[in-house]
Amino acid sequence: MIIITRAKKIKLFVVFSIIITSAILLPWLIKFSYFIIRDFSTAPEMWFNFGIVESWKSLLVDVRFRNIFLVLQISITVLSLLLLWDTKGIKKKNKLMADIGSVDSVGAGQHGTSRWMSEKEKDKFSFVWKGGELTEDDSGLVLGMKKKRDQEKIWLGSGDTHSLIVGATRSGKSRRLILPTIYALASSEESMVIGDPKGELYISAKEYLRKEKYKVVSLNLREPAKGNQWNLLDLLYEYKVKGEKDKVIEMAWDIAHTIVNQTPSVSSEPIWKNGAESVIASLILLNVFDAKNKDEISMASVYKTLATLGQPLADETIPLLDYISLLSPDHPAKLAFAAAGIAPYKTRASFFTTVLTDLRIFSDSNIVNMTSNQDHNLKNIGIEKTAVFLIVPDEKSTRNVLATLYIDQLYQQLVELANTEGGRILKRVNFILDEFGNLPAIPNFSNKLTVAGGRGIRFTLAVQDIAQIERLYQKTTKTILGNCHTWVYLITSDLETAKLISEKTGKYTVETESESRNVQERGHSSGISMGMTGRALLMADEILRFPEGKSLVLRAREFPAVYEMPDLSSYHFNFLLGFSLDRVKNKEIIKKRWEKEVKRKKEKLYTWMPDLSEVLELKVKTEEETEEIEMEEKIKVVKSETEEVEDFL
């Protein structure tokens, strides 16, 4: 049934009172003008004496008088009825949006007050950029763009908040969203770390960024020889030189944990993962602390040490186990090996097999060459404007762990920089991680998100659906999603993701209609009743049908908004990148740019591992020392017994 509030009843009474009163008095009021025209001095008296009844009689016989009355009465009636229109509701009305969904709202928000954001509100709550330079306070993720003639109006999500992009494969994330965002960030001279599965972002933006005085770094895991070099253990060596032993140990364990946990465990027993982490951490520390030259410190040395010395000899002894057992008790490598060392001998050998599998990527000569040297400083990314492109091939998932390790090490270095600069890095760094769901889990990522913003580190995570995050981060998924204050939705094929986004749009009040019929032998009755209920601004099925070329933006403390999200070709930035409106021609441009990419010359690489002969010598020496100690103990016992006999005699 229709609910009529007390305020509504009063408004209805007032409106109909005006209409009825005007209908009664209007002919008499119109007649006043006639008397004024005839004789102004006597008009009031004559009009008053004429009266309402005589006015109505004139209305019936005078056509001109009747026409004037009808025009005025209709106008008064229309204006009176407009009072019934809820002007407050006009502002919040959910008009049916073409090819998006939702229906008109009714009532006063009894079942929900969600609504679409107006363009004025978009301008108010986002930064409107019309080209030119930007400040760090204004720049951010591109939410949408509208073009009128040649003038671009770009809405940016500014502030130190993290974002989530939901877009299935072929949704246009790169061209519609990420490349325009690179344009905005470059205009504010911020650093950026871009996840780039195909390398298209790198090859498209590299020359433009260099013209803008950016240092461009490419960690190319697809073709390592065409990118920069990064040694996972370089920082550990630097900390060792500085005497920060604890920091070296901590980082060794971080690397070990990430490598071992790059894939979900098939066993519920923690001993296998703990043992594998222990072995990797121990091998890293052995390499860092025992190698004599910096050039010999790399993950290639770690792999070679295990592959060579982890094999059983003819007498079934394993040289690596013997070497570790002969280290001094306070050697970091021996202490790290303790978790694996307490396991039975055969179990330790099984750990070695597992670790060799985890480290097999460092047997690839291309990866070995890339990870044996360091050609850029990670801390400088938070000091001078830098663009890092992580080219992570989706067809070679075994290399993805390197991207995760790079992100983790870079984050730790930026935090260290922030701690020396009053809590915030000098230049904000934006992590825009496309295909975030395909990367191995970043250690303690939910904690990183919680505190990163205040340090000048901003994350944008692009996934195909929410299930990708749940698979990787499990119990911390809610924390990760909760720390993403801006959600930009393009399209998904996952129903659960659509349901979640539908819930986030909120509910508003809509009208319902129900019909009832009662059929009997002597007759029947029917009736229609109207009511109100709550409805999501967009239902899950409408989310799944969301149109191309638009973005649904959900931001904390704001109403949902739909923006135009055109292709890169609509932006002036398209021409700054050196592209045209011809897609075929652009493909040729990209092809030629890749052909110009120079492969790095392979340098002579140095690896290290404990010398097997030294191991055997050390073992023999230790056995001889043990025998000498035992002999000395026996001599002491004999002397003691001899002295006792002499004392007795």
Short description:
The chain has 649 residues and is α/β, with parallel strands linked by helices. The chain has helices at 6-38, 43-61, 63-82, 87-92, 119-125, 173-187, 200-211, 234-241, 245-260, 270-290, 299-309, 319-325, 332-336, 338-341, 345-358, 365-370, 400-420, 445-452, 466-473, 477-483, 495-505, 540-544, 573-576, 583-596, 612-648, and strands spanning 127-129, 141-148, 151-157, 162-167, 191-195, 215-220, 386-391, 429-433, 457-463, 484-491, 507-520, 523-536, 550-555, 561-564.
Characterise the protein shown here.
It contains 25 helices and 14 strands. By secondary structure, it is α/β, with parallel strands linked by helices. It has three domains: 6-85, no CATH class; 90-228 and 376-515 and 528-571, P-loop containing nucleotide triphosphate hydrolases (Rossmann fold); 229-375 and 604-610, no CATH class. The strands form three sheets. A nine-stranded mixed sheet has the order 6-7-5-8-9-4-10-13-14, sandwiched between helices. Strand 11 (507-520) and strand 12 form a beta hairpin. The longest helix has 37 residues, at 612-648.
